[in-house]
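P.,

For your records, the input lines for the assembly:
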Amino acid sequence: MSEHRIMIGLEVHAQLTSLKSKLFCSCSADYRQLPPNSSVCPVCLGLPGSLPRLNRRALEEVLKIALALHSQPASETVFYRKHYFYPDMAKNFQISQYDRGGGVTIAKGGWLDLQTGQLTKRVRIRRVQLEEDVAKIVYPSSLLSSEYVLVDYNRAGVALCEMVTEPDISSPKEARQFIEKYASILEHLGVTDTSLEGSLRVDANISIDGGERVELKNINSPKDVEKALNYEVQRQVMIVERGGKVGMETRHWDELNRITVAPRFKEEEEDYRYFPEADLPPIRIEASLVESLSASLPELPDQRAERFVEKYGLTSYQAGVLVSQKRLADYFEEMVRSGLEASDSADWLMNEILGDLSDFKKELKDLEPLINDLVKIIGMYEKQEITGKIAKRQLKQLIATGRLPDEVPTPMRDENTLAALVAEVIREHPEVYEKSKRDPKAMNYLVGQVMRKTKARADPKVIVEILKKALNKDSNNRLNN
Amino acid sequence: MSAVSIANGVRSGETSAEEIVERYLEVISRWEPKIHAFLYVDEKGALEAARAVDALVKEGRDPGPLAGVPIAVKDNIAVKGMPLTCASKILTGYVSPYDATVVTKLRQSGSVIIGKTNLDEFAMGSSTEYSAFGPTRNPWNLDRVPGGSSGGSGAAVASGEVPLALGSDTGGSVRCPASFTGVYGLKPTYGLVSRYGLVAFANSIEVIGGFSSTAKDMDLLFSVMRNSAAPDPMDQTTIFSPPLAFPGLKGLRVGIIKETLAEGVDHDVAKVTYGFAEALEEAGAIVEEISMPDLYLALPAYSLPASAEASSNLARYDGIRYGMPCPLDAKDWNEAFSRVRGEGFGPEVKRRVMMGSFVLSSGYYDAYYLKAVAARTKIREDIIRALKDYQFLISPTNPTTAPKLGERTADPLSMYLLDLDTVPVNLSGIPALSIPFGRSSDGMPIGVQLMSSPLRDDWVIKAAEELEEMGKVEMASVVARLE
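Structure tokens returned:
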């Protein structure tokens, strides 16, 4: 795979979930919990005679994104209509923006840097723009067996930021990294809650060895982008290595079967017939607005990672992982604020907690209400009131059930009690004890047995000490005899 | 009766709105079988609204400047609870769930909405023959068209069915029927009247306008329709302006556009237009002939972008959400959409949608659409420049009087030619008033067009008022016959 030159460009659509209302009307944009077709009005249903009116906040949110990507805001921007017939569009055109034929998007140019090993990879941004989301098509039974479809226009008209990169990305993994970082930027800006279903949707263009590019449409998560691109790279490599030629086409990512598929019908070459949306006069973007937005940008992932290294002494790898998700970085800082050691907190998060979350199919936001209990457990560990093993077990239970286990076992420190338990284990397993005199590995078994008797409340190091003492005493006795 | 006198009578309690409405409903029932100006008459709603106005008067409250004045609304403007057909089969069964901003203003001013008037389907046409529900006839001569596309509104005011009516003007759709039916027709400055609720055809140039039988009535109607104190938050293309004082015709400079009186113009039309120029001179204005050699570009500069916009604006009619139902036996979306649109749209709409889709297609966009937009800019600049030297420009409203029914439908180009003198006004966004100023040798009304700079809507109305007061304007005689 590596001998092929891969060029990937991404088109990422992010819903501006921070906005209360839709892009061109005052319907609630927070449609996810609502009954179908309840957050609609003449404007977002495209009823005859209705007109769009721009939600200025949306423009500001997109400007923030543009500034975070070092993209250059236009002094005046215009909306264009993009036409195609589909039931998810109430007007059969989408109000979007266009960077050709006289169109000017909100911003153009810019870049986003990725850490790839020791190197910094710069991915150039082509443009950042604003457009309306489309309705949701619901297949009552399944995509293939439905005799009809239902259309829910609640999502129609929700503000979307479309960000397009240059084809600078050179591997599926990089593509995933890019999207994760972009998502973290959106989270840090507070414009998009990327944990909401469908809030981030990606189209990816990919070509190998300078061949035709294939567009993969509507992929929902960074992980799936990587999977879809990996599949597509293999598919294209196979074609090329067999002496074939990759044709320009649009394919869809089939989440279930983890393959990209050509559309069922041969799609006609699309001609969107872009032209200016005369219902929305050109919008001036005042330099003063850009300045004030620029001055009030929050701390972004790169700056935050730097601060984590300087302030908390984390490695840049640790800092990078933590800031890759705003919730994770926030959680880390919350742990530190609650009095935990910074490097401990990073270790626990990265080595234990993230794994637990995925094991129990939980998300970071499920962890937020558990902060006090979580800090309590790790705090007890830091004060050596419980062992690492117990701490891990407690955390797993906490994450799995959302509750602190009723009884937190107190550590067993009394040496006499432990010595008695050690003696008991030696009596029960004389042959292992004998073996451990020659083979230190056999001793681990004995330690394990003692730990079982203490229900893991003892510190295994102490048990090893006691066992060693017993072995020494034995060999001394033997010498003396 | 004039709207001014109705409103005065109702506000003072001299007459009741209910009485007024009943009287007009009676006129409507008499004229409708002959002219078919209305697609929908809301007798019950109108009487209720009238009684509500009377109740306010009884309580000692002022119902507003249009108290009790019946008004007809072109059926491409949304009125809550009434069908909105745009004279198209494709909107069968659709009832608007909301009021256009202008309709809200009319309601708040105490006027009574009587019903919806006929038009060329989606306002595309100049004769009202392209209505899916049959043509409207000219009350002056039932064999003639009333003009279009707001032919129903023009005929309704001309026949005295209503004192006032709303229309929409994309390329002349208010002024043409006003001229052909002998009433006043105002095309306001683009943006000064909200388009919210006007079904879009060519949204970058069209406006809601009004019909009246006197200039004073137009003044009253326009004072309610316009944005005086603030733009309409529902229409971001709106601007606002308080009414402007008019200094009087004396000493003002008027340019009469030579090219609009050249070959192809009816002799009678030219004669009436020159007569209008003379009347202005008598009122003290200085009239000079001016030349606009590029005006011939106006028709293509209008029809290409207007068709492009139409193809886009009409894309939403697919039978899925409202209107003519989508066939259930279609094999896919495309077939369903195509069948609905194939059956639902009439020939003129299809012609423009196809032409518009074509000029926006990749490969043709630059050659057609952008070129037409450039021509449009040129015409706008010429007109705005002329309006720096002249406070008014004048021309005939249309090159001819009302054609006979069926005379122009066979040749779409001959129909488009009727708009020759009106489209430059839409291309440049300026206000224009068609003033009924004479009649042809065969008795048909002839309108002249008075144009001015953006926001000088009051000027064109007040200038007409001045001429009216001087006794220069021939009052519409169909109305006179009724009273």
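Two observations worth noting. The two ends of chain B are 8 Å apart (CA to CA). DSSP finds 16 helices and eleven strands in chain B.

Regards
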